[in-house]
């Protein structure tokens, strides 16, 4: 139990480190890679919490597809050149220098809160299969997902049609 | 399932708050639109972690997974449309710096 606890704690620490690197790094590409890394670490944590279906989605969609979208966007929008980045670095550093300190203060401050954690974890629900819950209990969610995906498709089509017209 | 130390959930709660702070900081203190989207992504990661933990603690793991799948779908569609808007803005203005986007009407 102690090994599990230490391992989970270690995963949490590297999750915070990856998130901090994502925000603090000056290169946009590195920031996108940091976000993918954060997703991968989150996937590890979810895998340890027995949520295998979500693990697959998080790893393939969030760490994979979204990173590809971000990197494509960065390459399409021609970000700043190296000399421009160096020029803006000082101002950026001045804005973001307080973030690690703020994170440290939040972490240490919250860890002083006294909470009563003498509870037993409940046993897993009867419908332990997420697919059954999704199809039988949350079927309206599926309809919503289809509507949202169609909205996204039409939104992108309209956006790029306008751009091509211009 | 019961072999997890309850104190771990408290640590996860703290990490979730930290991720929220990072995401909000990234959104409020950046002038780059792509970086602002990365901040939103960090916020969504925090929400995902919170939902999964809540499902684990309450024993409704399958329900939590179903909700997170919906969240991931919404997240992807949001990012696709938002990056489309960002590319459109860049094509129109030639920059992603929010300080230079002064020609928005409304």
Could you describe the 3D structure shown?
The complex is a heterodimer of chains A (166) and B (106). Chain A has 166 residues and is mainly α. Chain A has two domains: 2-119; 127-166. Chain A is 80% helix and 0% strand. Chain A is built from seven helices and no strands. Chain A has helices at 2-24, 28-48, 52-76, 82-96, 98-111, 130-137, 139-165. The longest helix of chain A has 27 residues, at 139-165. The relative contact order of chain A is 0.07. Chain B is an all-alpha fold. Chain B has helices at residues 7-29, 33-58, 61-93. In chain B, helix 1 (7-29) packs antiparallel against helix 2 (33-58) and helix 2 (33-58) packs antiparallel against helix 3 (61-93). The longest helix of chain B has 33 residues, at 61-93. Chain B is elongated and about 50 Å long. Chains A and B meet through helix 1, helix 2, helix 3, helix 5 and helix 6 of A and helix 1, helix 2 and helix 3 of B.
Please give the largest β-sheet of chain B. none
Class by alpha and beta content of chain A: mainly alpha
Tell me the number of helical segments of chain A per DSSP (H or I, 4 or more residues long).
7
What number of domains of chain B?
A: 1
For the report, how would you describe the main beta sheet of chain A?
none
Roughly what percent helix of chain B? over 70%
User: What is the number of beta strands of chain B?
Assistant: 0
Secondary-structure element sequence of chain A?
HHHHHHH
Q: Give the radius of gyration of chain B.
A: 18 Å
Q: What is the total tally of β strands of chain A?
A: 0
**Low-confidence spans of chain A:** none
Kindly provide the name of the CATH class of chain B: Mainly Alpha
Query: What fold name stands as the CATH topology of chain B?
Result: Helix Hairpins
Beta fraction of the residues of chain B?
Answer: under 5%
Shape of chain B: elongated
What value does the average pLDDT of chain B take? Answer: 88
Report strand % of chain A: under 5%
Ends of chain A: how far apart?
62 Å
